[in-house]
Specification:
Elements lengths: L3 E6 L13 E4 H6 L3 H11 L8 E6 L5 H14 L4 E9 L2 H10 L4 E5 L11 E7 L8 H11 L4 E6 L9 E5 L2 E6 L3 H10 L2 H10 L4 E4 L5 H12 L7 E2 L20 H7 L7 E5 L6 E5 L2 E3 L1 H11 L13 E4 L5 H9 L3 E4 L7 H5 L5 E4 L3 E4 L7 H15 L3 H12 L1 E12 L1 H14 L7 E2 L2 E8 L2 E2 L6 E2 L4 E6 L2 E7 L7 E11 L9 H4 L1 H11 L1 H5 L6 E2 L1
Parallel strand pairs: 3-4, 3-5, 4-9, 10-11, 10-12, 15-16, 15-17
Antiparallel strand pairs: 1-7, 2-6, 5-6, 8-9, 12-13, 13-14, 17-18, 19-26, 19-27, 20-21, 21-24, 22-23, 24-25, 25-26
The chain binds 1-O-phosphono-alpha-D-glucopyranose (G1P) and zinc ion.
Length: about 550
């Protein structure tokens, strides 16, 4: 079939700069500004000289505007000469599943439509991210090129064709392009079956020896969790809750934390709590892990997975190394030391793990922001983390709480909390960071309460693989006895600025492993205020979110 290609005129926007994770804006920005989506998509395509005949993976988290946006992208991809488009049925693909499909099909890349854990809907957020051929988020050299292109773009290409049927699995040919609508779950489920001990997990779940509640938060992981946990592993129906993806996430905030995954949290702290509780976010890359009446911090989760990886078939041969983002607690560092493997400290954002994974320097990595992953894909992976935990629980016969407490007894505990000041005024946020900056030189050697400053700097990272340098990644203040304060501005917000304060204290004393986190960190929380004056400068009485 011959296809008509239209070249349409457009005018550039000045603000299409990708942040920590793609271009993320209020949905309205996409809806109300003519060609806002088209401009950015053409800017991406213009930066991909090899696109002709190549494979592109397409999907999203199912939020409002996902479907119409996909239809536009399909038509533009056809007009830009891609050879094959692989699209998740219903326009759905979780971020890790997209990453896997890119790798498995040797695609040039993929586009995932998502604003991750941000609420969706006309009043919520929308986003678009590009992943490269290794399956990982586009690194800076790409995103900077997209941004440059977006500021000079004058036209975009689009095919004159009817909408594709996103709900019917099958192939259609449009000119030079084959459009394949595929089941979004199958390939991903196969990958999980290779990594984990599905037989043993199935026995534990069908016998009821182990029980699970997975909260999909009406986002993309519903179909994945249903298929894997209920259909393949035999967890009783109803083990996956909020399983149907909805355009507005059922009015919820698809962020798996103690505040937003309310139904799950109530269940896990109630009398009928199952062995394992878990939740994932909008696009399926985040995870929260709970035991009966017990919350596992993401930093501890990473450390525990590293320490127990040998119990899981896919990691039985050991870990090459581990990595964590700089603000993530240093719990995993101790495990790496005990295992005799390297531990890398990277800036915030999954893209920094890509090179380390590709070069075979690390096997596991994670962030404090509910992100954990491994070399099986190039994104963090929510359901993978849940299956990893389930495998460990089944293999050891121990509860989540016991596993974590034993871990603390062995390695000590890194008390850890993040305090967010959301939607503060940009200028105030910048002034706080400048103020902190100005104090860096004078701090080392000083006493702060019962602590002494051993190091104070603005974190910069030299990539050990390609030598690229990333600066300005957050203020670090390292203290003795072992503690740490980190201050940085969020790169994913869509309103004003968000200041994140990360507070950590190491506690080796076996008698002091079960304290309340905020109480254990009280003195450091005070110190953070003294240093940053965030409450004073913003007029806020405290953080908007504490995790
Ligand atoms: C946040 C998290 C970061 C994560 C990113 C994307 O970015 O802090 O760890 O990689 O979302 O999920 P931030 O808003 O802090 O820039
Ligand atoms: Zn996400």
């Amino acid at each position: 079939m011959q296809i008509d290609i239209e070249v349409r005129k457009t005018t550039p926007y000045p603000d299409q700069k990708p942040g920590t994770s793609g271009l993320r804006k209020k949905t309205k920005v996409f809806l109300e500004n003519p060609n806002y989506l088209e401009n950015f998509v053409q800017s991406i395509f213009d930066c991909l000289p090899d696109r002709r005949g190549a494979t592109l993976v397409l999907g999203g988290d199912g939020r409002y505007f996902n479907r119409p946006a996909l239809q536009t992208i399909v038509k533009m991809a056809v007009a830009n000469g891609f050879g094959t488009l692989l699209i998740g049925q219903g326009g759905l693909l979780s971020t890790p599943a997209a990453s896997h499909l890119i790798r498995k099909n040797q695609a040039l890349g993929g586009i995932v439509l998502s604003a991750s854990h941000n609420p969706g809907g006309p009043e919520g957020d929308f986003g678009i991210k590009y992943n490269i051929d290794n399956g990982g988020p586009a690194p800076a050299r790409y995103t900077e090129a997209f941004f440059r292109r977006s500021r000079e773009i004058r036209e975009y290409r689009i095919a004159r064709m009817a909408d594709v049927d996103l709900d019917r699995i099958g192939e259609q040919v449009y000119g030079e392009t084959t459009v394949k609508v595929i089941d979004p779950v199958t390939d991903y489920a196969q990958l999980m079956a290779q990594l984990f001990d599905f037989d043993r997990m199935r026995r534990a779940l069908t016998s009821g020896a182990v029980t699970i509640c997975f909260d999909a938060m009406h986002a993309v992981t519903g179909p994945y969790a249903k298929r894997i946990l209920e259909e393949e592993l035999g967890a009783p129906p109803g083990s996956v809750i909020n399983a149907v993806p909805l355009e507005d996430f059922g009015g919820g905030h698809p962020d798996p934390n103690l505040t937003y995954a309310k139904t799950l949290v109530e269940k896990m702290y109630g009398p009928e709590a199952p062995t394992l509780g878990a939740a994932s976010d909008g696009d399926g890359d985040r995870n929260m892990i709970l035991g009966r009446g017990f919350f596992v911090t993401p930093s501890d989760s990473l450390a525990l997975l590293a320490a127990n990886a040998h119990r899981v078939p896919g990691y039985r041969d050991g870990l090459r190394g581990v990595a964590r983002s700089m603000p993530t607690s240093r719990a995993v560092d101790r495990v790496a030391e005990a295992l005799g493997i390297p531990c890398y400290e990277t800036p915030t954002g999954w893209k920094f793990f890509g090179n380390l994974l590709d070069a075979g320097k690390i096997t596991l990595c994670g962030e404090e922001s509910f992100g954990t992953g491994s070399d099986h894909v190039r994104e963090k992976d929510g359901l993978w983390a849940v299956l990893f935990w389930l495998n460990i629980v089944v293999a050891t016969g121990q509860s989540v709480a016991t596993l974590v407490r034993e871990h603390w007894r062995r390695f000590g505990r890194n008390y850890y909390s993040r305090h967010d000041y959301e939607a503060i005024d940009r200028a105030t946020a910048d002034a706080i960071m400048t103020h902190l900056h100005d104090r860096l030189a004078e701090l080392p050697g000083n006493r702060l309460g019962k602590f002494r400053v051993v190091q104070a700097d603005d974190f910069s990272y030299t990539d050990p693989v390609d030598g690229s340098v990333t600066t300005g990644q957050g203020i670090r203040i390292l203290l003795e006895p072992e503690a740490r304060l980190v201050f940085r501005l969020s790169g994913t917000g869509t309103e004003g600025a968000t200041l994140r304060i990360y507070i950590e204290r190491y506690q080796p004393d076996p008698a002091r492993l079960d304290l309340d986190t905020q109480a254990a960190l009280a003195e450091l929380i005070e110190l953070a205020e003294t240093l940053s004056e965030v409450k004073k400068r913003t007029g806020r009485s405290g953080p908007t979110v504490v995790t």
